[in-house]
Structure formats: C-alpha cells, structure tokens
Design a protein that fits this description.
With about 950 residues, this protein is an alpha/beta fold. About 45% of the residues lie in helices and about 15% in strands. Helix 4 links the parallel strand 4 and strand 5. Helix 8 packs antiparallel against helix 9, helix 19 packs across helix 20 and helix 29 packs across helix 30. The two termini are about 55 Å apart. 3'-5' exonuclease. Keywords: ATP-binding, Exonuclease, Helicase, Hydrolase, Nuclease, Nucleotide-binding.
Length: about 950
C-alpha cells in the first residue's frame, strides 16, 4: 500500500447541496505508507442558520461558525490536499458530491480523483458486521470513536478503518482476490490497483493459510468434522438440579450477582416430569423467570441420559442467536458433563458452493447490488463455518440473487458429487444427526411435520419456545401464498429461449433446436403465459378495488385485504377471473410438459451436466408450484380454507398478494404432531387468559387428559415497579370520533415525553393510526429535544429502529404489529409504554372473519372464544415490553378506557401481574406520572 490516500469527512446544514445546504465543518486526514501523516480541520461559515437538529447531532452552533472562513476562502487549501491521491470517505457519494457542488458554485473544477468508499469496502471485507454506520462499525472492529458527528474525528476513525480494511484484504487468499478483481469494474470504489498488487504478491509467494481450502477457484473456510461421543450421567435428576440451582451450585459460581429464582427450578422439574410421564405440557413462564435456562437444563440431562436427541424450536432467529451465543455456553459451564448442540434451518438459509461457483464463472454483466453481493459472499466464505446467510446483511436485491444460489435450489443431491462433501447444508444435517440438542425454528418444524418428517433428524421429545406463535406458523405452512412479484421474478429468470438466457443456451448446447420446434413453441407459450399473468393480476387488483367500495379491511402494514369465497362472489367479473386462472394453468402445464421433455433429453446425453439438470428440475418445481397454487386458489373448492387477496392501495396495478390458510388447524396438529410425539413442551410468557390455558389448548388441539399445564409467576415486584394509568376523558372512537381520539393520544404522548424525557414506546394496533399520529407529532413536538422514530416511516429494520431509539437520549418510538413483542429495551432506555388501543384484530380481517363464522356455525361466541383471547395475549405481549429486569421502573399508559368500562376489561387486567392502577382524568394522570418519576 504505497499510494497516498486522503480521507475527508464533512458536517453540513442538511443532506442536499441542491437544496442550498452548505458545509459547516471539514476534516481531512492523510495516509502515507500505511500510517496517518497529516490532519486538517476547519469550521466554514455557511452564511445561513444551522438547523436545530444538526446542532443537536454535531454540537456545532451558529456562534461556532459566525467568524469562520467561507468555503471559497478555504477551497484552494482543501483541493491542494487531494493532489496525486485517492479520495476516501465513509459514503463517498455524499462527501464528494457536496464538495464538488460547492466547487462548482464558485466556478472551480470538480475533483476527479480515484475514490474508495469505506462503507462499500467494509461491506465486502467485514460482511458479518452488524451495521455499516461509522460508529457501530468502529465499535465492532475495536476502534475508539470519541467524538462522533464531528468532521475531524469521523475522518480520523475512517482513516483507521481504512488501514484495518487493507490489513484484512492482505489476509485473503489468491482465489478470493482473483474473484474480486473480476467484479471490481461493477463496484463504486477504485480497487483495481489494491487488488492487483495483492494478487501479484500472492502469485510470487507461498502464504500458508491452514484453515482455508479451495475447489474450482472458490476459496472457503475448512471446517472440522465433529467426532462422535458418548457421555454418561452420574447423578439423579434431583442431585443434578441441586448442583446447579442451590447454594454453592454452579449457577452461583458462574453467574454474576446470582439470585435464586424458585420459578426457574420449578419449571425445570415440571419439564423433566413431563418427559418421564411421556405427556405434553403448556408452561407459561412470566418475564424474569429465566425460561431459556429453565428448559435447557432438563433438556440436556434427558438427551444425554436417554441417548435420544431433543429438539428446541423458536419463532425468532433472535432467540436462536441468544440461545447459541449466551445460554448454551453458560449451560456448558453449569452441567457436569459435555453434550453436543447443533442449529438446523431450512435449505433456503444455506449457500450452495456449487451454485455460487457456477454463477461466478458465468460472464454475464452484474448490476451493482449483485456485484456487491458476490463480493461480500466471496470474503464471507473464508470466514463462515455454517454457510448460513443470516450471518451477513446483503443489499436488498442480493436476497433474490441468494435464492438462486441457496441449497434450496438443489433439487437432488448426489452423494458421489465432489460438492456433496463440501455442502454446508449436508454438514448442518450431519451435525444435527450427531447432536444431543438440535435448535431449529417453527417454520422448519412445520415444514418437517407436513412433509412426512424428512427434514429434521428423528425425535420423540421437543420444546417449543415462543409457543403463542405456533398455531399461526402451522396455519401458514399448511396454507398457500403467491404474489405477482415472485412469479414474475422466477419467469424472468427463465426467459424466452430466443433471449439467450440459460434455457436458450441449453437448447443450443444440446442441439435440441436443430428442429427449432421446441424453441419456437416455448417462446410462443411463454409469451402467452406472461401476458396472461399480467392480465390476471391486473384484473384481480381492479376487482378488489371495486369490492372495497362496499367494505374496507386493512392489514397491519397498510395493504387493502379482501376475503373471497369462489361460490359466493358476484358473477360477471369473478367468472372472468376464474376463466383467466384456468387458462393460465393450461399455459403453465404446457411449459411444464416442455421442461420435462428437455430434462428427459438431457439425461439421455452422454456428457450431460448435472447442473443443467438441477436447473431444469428446480424450474419444473417452481412452475408446478405456481400452477398448483393458482388452481387451489381459484378453481378447486376446499371448505376448510380461508382465501384472501391483499393489494398495495397505491402500488402498481398488479401488486397483488394471494393467500390461503386452514380455518382450523387443531385437528391437523392433533393427528400429525401431538399423537405422534412422546412429549411436546410448549412455553411462552403469554399462553393464558385470566390464568386459564383453555383457549390455547383448543386452538392447538391438545387433549387435557394428556397435557400438564403450569403458570410460573414473575419474580419481579410489579407493585413497586409499574404504574398502570388509564384516562377517563378521551373521546370515544365508538361514536366515530377517531380524529379526536388520535389528537388526545398525541397530546398525552407529548405530555408524558416531557415527564419521562422521551424513552417512550408507543404501540398502535393499525398502521393507519400510527401514520396519522406520526404526522401530528412531527408538527407539534420539539424536534430540538425529542427524536421521533416510526416503524414503516423511519428507514431501517425493526432492530435498526430499536438501536436508533437506544442511541438517542430522548427518543419516542412508534410501532405496530411486530413491535408488540420480542423487543427488549431494559433499564432506563425505556421508561414509558403507551398502548393506544386494546389489540383486537379488525372484525373484517379475512382469517378472523372466517374463524368467527365457523365458531358461529357451531353455536359458539366468536368474541369470547377467539377475539378476546387473541387480544388479551397480544396485550400481555405489549405490557411485557416495559419491565425486563428487577431494576426497571416505568409507566404503562393505556389510552383505551374499555379496559375499565367494559365487562370484558377484567380479562385484560386479570391476565397481567397485579399493578397499581389509576383511572382518572388526563390531568390527574400526568400529575401522578410526574410524582412517580
């Protein structure tokens, strides 16, 4: 690394120089011979007022820049520093774009230096980093960042980051550098010289990298094969628990400030008893029980003692990660014997080295996202031991590319293939076969269950955590879903034979097109299929729009929903839709017939390529799935299914999503799961309504004679830690006064924010209400004091929004749907939880509507049997966001007076821990809140 590199960072009055935003501070750091040799920093007078948000973020105030030089006065000094050098920035388009706009404004030449973007380079070389924002990236790789959002400090950290990135680059093997060089032209950074010098050095030296191996030009990390083991358990289960939980036990030795929780040992005993009795169990373990350890301790004992594996299934990957990174290492310290643990996910999570190598060797030009995805994967393969794509964060369209190279796209795996022994998925399966405990997710568990138990290794006992989601996931897996974007993407991947896509190349390669009949026929039918899909989905879109004039239903992400029943739809347009659907299935079957012909032809070739057959077989599978789904949704009749359509209200006229689910899944679960397994333990913090398990038992099809139930109370002192406040003076939505209700909610949020200094999570039951509240709060709230973050409006994933919430001292987070659970914000980061409405599902939600009708047919009360229990469990999940540790304190403010005024309100208050409750005017509640804090 002999070149000269100059790092720049700017602080500005806003994001866009085209909207007259100006530079207020410049920081420059020069790197020569791999070390920082020079620094430069100055304030610049923008000749305009600095917005309060920028002053808050950077600490730069108007008085700091009032006597500073203007950009024009410093321009020559700044430009001269970039002579004969690379320009480096953490997000080059922003800093270089700003600099060049300012230069153009004073009629100076724009900079045309070669550039390196450390965001892009970090994405490639640190693909497993949790974030690529400068502060979080610095923390991840151990760089101290004292003064974020100040130009010189940011430039200095970027320079240190760049030096570390170069060191990382110099550890990559020859094959990886060679592959990156082929992608370099499609990247934003000018990396050719760096990569070429590294390649030249490697070409003339022998660098031993013992843990890296390569095959067909692809370098990847060599993983050790695990050896078989047999452990004996020397003690009885009671002695084993004593040695862990009691005085001088291993928990006391290995856990800081350990305090015994009676409920935790109690839960371990209950699970072991259920295992021995070969019965099922429903165990509600309230927040603070420590349920992960409580179920892992008996699971490990039982698995090792019996020599039979136990499965643990979670709903979220977040909990899987927590189990593997935190709980399992602790259990290994706590128990007196060794055991084997394995994580197994669905095939779509694992990369296929064979498919990826094939994609790299194809010479088609990549767009930027695909080139970046390939570059990230090339480096990641030298680090990963699992091949699980969840380890890295790909660019958005990178996930569509990954579908093509995941193990899921391998229809048949040949054990004699040289790729078989290198397959990450096969290695994961082998580890699972040898493990005592296998951790998986509800999705794979249900896929396994409904496909003859062929994906997970055999098991008799299982623990299902986050079990309140189990029915929903089982229903989705037994149901169907299809959307225009997915079907269009797959068909575009296949393409016309005449376009020279993979299909056309196959026809040429195997000389099938000599007669030209198959090629011509394919293109004709394929064109008709695409045309029919466009027409059908546009027709469905318009049909839903027309029907919505009569009834409105919205999903929690703002889509319009429409439930359809083939035999009950008005004739006319619906008949046209079913005729179009039938025509589409004929075309898809014609394509299937031709693909099968092609596959048969390939297998008869003397030198057929297995990859070609895999590609054709995967395509056959996809096309058949589309055809079957269209037929089941629009043509065949199935009484046990609810079918519905979702459209993007303001999206493209074919932005259509189709779904079906069984109305009732209990009988399937009883027959296909509970009757086939010895012991199923279902646990969650929210399984009961008013201390009763009846609802969840009925929904899951668990027979009470073979099911043990237990509720384990939280060790937290809710009486001292929480105040529940409910206003008695809010407008009543029932009388159509939604706008006034939202205004009152926003006023309460603003008043509480002043008392709690932000630190507030606001939960909504609909995205529409969240948007309207955000719009009011954005105008009314003091933006110099509070940061407003809103799901679906502020950019970023749920975890990114949560991180932003924690990083800002005074923030208010508005959430819906997924924010009601699984968001842990312990300590002072969250002091106030506002629940806008009791979380009843809308009565016209398609699934609720169908289940409700079925219950009414059976003479049951749909509100008491379905709507209320679901809402109570959801409410308990929301309530549980506030208190996550014994030291947390806070307020729960419920804007919905139905919790007090209605007869069913007691079901909500009796289902949460006993807390002091005040039902009074908003004014009195604010005084109470101020006094509490």
């Amino acid at each position: 690394m002999n070149s000269r590199y100059v790092v720049i960072d700017l602080e500005t009055t806003g994001h866009s120089p085209l909207k007259s935003d100006k530079i207020i501070e410049v920081g420059i750091v020069v790197i020569e011979n791999n070390t920082i040799s020079k620094e430069y920093s100055t304030f610049l007078n923008p000749n305009k007022t600095i917005p309060p948000f920028i002053s808050n973020l950077t600490g730069i105030k108007n008085e700091d820049v009032s006597h500073a030089p203007t950009f024009e006065e410093e321009a020559n000094t700044i430009v001269s520093m970039f002579e004969n050098s690379y320009l480096i920035a953490h997000n080059v388009p922003f800093d270089l774009g700003f600099l060049n706009e300012e230069l153009a404004a004073i009629n100076e030449k724009k900079l045309t230096n070669p550039v390196i973007d450390t965001v892009e380079l970090a994405r490639i070389l640190y693909p497993q980093a949790p974030s690529f924002k400068l502060g979080q990236l610095a923390e991840y790789i151990g760089i101290n960042h004292d003064d974020p959002h100040r130009a010189l400090s940011d430039a200095y950290v970027t320079a240190q980051l760049f030096i570390m990135l170069i060191k990382k680059l110099e550890k990559l093997p020859y094959e990886s550098i060679d592959q990156l060089l082929k992608l370099e032209k499609a990247l934003k950074s000018d990396l050719y010289q760096l990569l070429y010098e590294r390649q030249e050095k490697l070409a003339f030296s022998v660098e031993e990298q013992t843990n890296i191996t390569s095959y067909k030009g692809l370098a990847y990390k060599q993983t050790e094969e695990s050896k078989g083991h047999k452990q004996n358990v020397e003690s009885s289960f009671g002695e084993y628990l004593d040695s862990i939980y009691e005085a001088n036990g291993t928990m006391e030795q290995f856990m800081k400030s350990y305090e015994k929780r009676n409920g935790q040992r109690e839960m371990s005993e209950d699970i072991f008893d259920a295992f021995q009795a070969k019965s099922h169990a429903l165990i509600e373990a309230e927040t603070g029980t420590g349920k992960s350890l409580a179920y892992l301790i008996p699971a490990v004992y039982e698995a090792v003692n019996s020599g039979k594996r136990i499965i643990i299934s979670t709903y979220t990957t977040q909990l899987q990660t927590q189990l593997l990174d935190e709980e399992i290492p602790l259990i290994q310290e706590l128990v007196p014997f060794s055991f084997k643990i394995a994580l197994l996910k669905g095939k779509q999570h694992y990369i296929s080295l064979e498919k990826f190598e094939r994609e790299l060797s194809s010479w088609e030009a990549d767009n930027y996202d695909i080139a970046l995805t390939k570059a990230m994967i090339i480096v990641w393969l030298t680090e990963t031991e699992t091949g699980d794509i969840d380890e890295i964060q790909l660019p958005s369209s990178g996930y569509l590319f990954f579908k093509r190279i995941s193990t899921d796209s391998e229809e048949y795996t040949d054990p004699t293939s040289p790729w078989f022994s290198r397959s990450f998925y096969q290695k994961a399966r082998k580890r699972a076969q040898q493990a005592d405990i296998v951790i998986t997710n509800h999705a794979l568990l249900c896929t396994d269950m409904f496909n003859g138990y062929q994906f997970l290794p055999p098991y008799e006992k299982i623990i299902i955590d986050e079990a309140h989601h189990f029915e929903e996931i089982a229903s989705k897996h037994y149901g169907l879903k299809l959307d225009y974007a997915s079907i269009n993407y797959i068909l575009n991947q296949i393409g016309l034979a005449a376009d020279g896509n993979w299909l056309g190349k196959l026809l040429v390669k195997y000389a099938i097109n000599k007669e030209e009949t198959l090629m011509d026929k394919w293109d004709e039918i394929f064109g008709l299929t695409k045309h029919e899909i466009d027409d059908l989905f546009r027709m469905i879109f318009q049909y839903v729009v027309d029907q919505q004039k009569f009834k409105k239903s919205f999903s929690d992400i703002g889509r319009i929903q429409y439930r359809f029943e083939n035999e009950k739809e008005p004739p006319g347009n619906w008949r046209i839709i079913t005729e179009m659907a039938a025509r589409l299935t004929y075309y898809l079957r014609d394509l299937l017939h031709m693909l099968t012909q092609l596959k048969d032809h390939l297998t008869k070739q003397d030198l057929f390529d297995k990859n070609d057959i895999d590609e054709v077989q995967a395509t056959i599978h996809s096309v058949k799935l589309f055809s079957d789904t269209i037929e089941k949704l629009f043509i065949s009749e199935k009484n046990n299914d609810v079918k519905w359509i979702e459209i993007e209200a303001y999206g493209a006229k074919n932005a259509v999503h189709l779904y079906s689910e069984p109305i009732e899944i209990a009988s399937f679960l009883t027959n296909d799961f509970f009757n086939k397994k010895q012991s199923v333990i279902l646990t969650s913090a929210t399984l009961t309504m008013k201390n009763s398990f009846t609802f969840i038992q009925n929904r899951l099809g668990l027979h009470s004679e073979n099911t043990f139930t237990k509720k384990i109370n939280s060790p937290f002192s809710y009486l001292d830690q929480v105040q529940l406040l409910i206003p008695d003076d809010f407008p009543d939505i029932k009388h159509g006064d939604l706008d006034s209700f939202i205004y009152s909610t926003c006023e309460a949020i603003m008043s509480l924010a002043e008392i709690t200094n932000g630190r507030m999570l606001v939960l909504f039951t609909s995205y529409d209400m969240l948007k309207r509240a955000h719009s009011i709060l954005k105008e009314a709230i003091d933006s110099t004091k509070f940061v407003l973050i809103a799901q679906g409006i502020s950019s970023g994933s749920r975890s990114r929004l949560k991180k932003n919430f924690v990083n800002f001292d005074q923030s208010i987070l508005l959430g819906t749907s997924s924010f009601w659970e699984g968001v842990d914000i312990p300590g002072e980061d969250l002091s106030c939880l506002v629940i806008a409405r009791l979380p009843f599902q809308p009565p016209n939600h398609p699934v609720y509507e169908a289940k409700s009708s079925r219950l009414k047919e059976k003479g049951k009360n749909a509100f008491m049997e379905l709507s209320l229990p679901n809402a109570v469990i959801r409410f308990k999940q929301g309530f549980g966001r506030l208190i996550r540790s014994a030291n947390d304190r806070g307020i729960v403010f419920v804007c919905d007076a139905r919790i007090v005024k209605t007869r069913y309100g007691k079901y909500f208050t009796d289902s949460i821990p006993n807390v002091p409750t005040t039902f009074n005017s908003t004014h009195v509640l604010m005084d109470k809140a101020e006094e509490w804090f």
